[in-house]
Design goal:
Layout: H1 3-21, H2 27-41, H3 45-58, H4 63-85, H5 90-100, E1 101-103, H6 108-115, E2 120-124, H7 130-140, E3 143-147, H8 153-165, E4 169-172, H9 180-192, E5 196-198, E6 211-215, E7 218-222, H10 225-233, E8 237-245, E9 248-253, H11 268-290, H12 301-307, E10 314-315
Parallel strand pairs: 1-9, 2-5, 2-8, 3-4, 3-5
Antiparallel strand pairs: 6-7, 7-10, 8-9
Helix pairs in contact: 1-4, 2-4, 5-7, 9-10
């Protein structure tokens, strides 16, 4: 078993054990665990070194951002436990979301899209505390969360339980035995019914699996699934990011991205999806430069390969010119 596989197995089992223990933990124990995570997180050599190196490679490191990131991650972990702890009292989770997450006025565009009778594909980055950020958005603009398929059924079930505890509706991607066309049609149908479907595009891909985008002075590769679904449904792709104000996550959206079909002479489907994903990534780049502590994935193994210049995941030769 590879080191990466061992790490994933340990993480999955730790999450499952934590979910089982959370309902039995008094609030002071959850708060204490959160404080310990805040203190020790940035001092644990493997994790701290990885996060620091990734931020430095991306050109966004500062001691303040580094410390704030681990404060936010500790809060994220504490809230993950609280969500399970309050599973039987959903009002507590809703209150927690209102206390810790604010919505920028730009989100009113989602209401305008709904008034027009169209669906929208809401495309957020993985904000720290993303369980509560989605809950807070859902309180004002009903959304449906797309959950990706995983070979580890326990992790999928855990994510479902988290969403249910938060009062979030879920669209679960079926297994790989179902065709890609059928999986896409599920999402397209939801958008054509006027729903707001949430899909996170910031999942680092291998060179031969994603579309090239210019990000933080390098070429990275991102999935085109969200853009492809939006194009098929003739729905806008709506980028959503966050900033930290007084330690609180403030969610905002950039201008919706229409994705019209292109003729073969204009590059066809690949060019249309690549252009849309670069537009999304331009906002993502600005978000990471302005508030890196608000992004959850600085310790992600795939993104680490991007920031380390692994040629399978990134390209520094063009310095960000895909």
């Amino acid at each position: 078993m590879s080191l990466r596989a061992v790490r994933r197995w340990c993480t999955a089992n730790a999450l499952i054990a934590g979910a089982r223990c959370a309902p039995l933990m008094p609030e002071f124990a959850v708060g204490g665990a959160e404080s310990l995570a805040k203190f020790f997180g940035r001092r644990l050599p493997p994790l701290a070194s990885m996060v620091r190196a990734n931020m430095q490679s991306a050109g966004v490191y500062s001691p303040e951002f580094f410390a704030e990131y681990f404060s936010q991650v500790a809060r994220h972990l504490g809230n993950a436990a609280r969500i399970f702890k309050y599973h039987g009292t959903p009002g507590r989770v809703q209150t927690l979301a209102r206390e810790q997450v604010e919505l920028d006025p730009s989100l009113k565009r989602l209401a305008e899209i709904r008034v027009e009778g169209r669906g929208a594909l809401l495309a957020p980055a993985h904000a720290v505390n993303f369980l509560l950020t989605a809950t807070r958005v859902h309180q004002e603009f009903p959304i449906r969360v797309f959950l990706r398929w995983s070979k580890d059924e326990r992790r999928v079930k855990l994510k479902q339980q988290w969403c249910e505890a938060c009062g979030l509706s879920v669209l679960l991607e079926p297994g790989r035995t179902v065709s890609a066309t059928t999986r896409a049609e599920m999402c397209v149908d939801a958008l054509k019914r006027g729903e707001i479907l949430l899909i996170t595009p910031d999942v680092a891909q291998k060179r031969d699996e994603g579309t090239p985008v210019s990000l933080l002075g390098r070429t990275a590769y991102l999935p085109t699934g969200a853009a492809a679904i939006a194009m098929l449904a003739e729905a806008p792709l709506v980028p959503m990011f966050s900033r930290l104000e007084r330690g609180v996550q403030v969610m905002y959206i950039d201008n919706p991205i229409p994705i019209p079909m292109r003729s073969r002479a204009d590059g066809g489907r690949p060019a249309a999806l690549g252009t849309a994903m670069q537009q999304w990534t331009t906002g993502f780049d600005a978000y990471l430069r302005a508030c890196p502590a608000a992004w959850f994935l600085w310790g992600d193994s795939r993104w680490t390969r991007v920031f380390r210049g692994d040629p399978e995941y990134s390209d520094l030769s063009g310095r960000g010119s895909p």
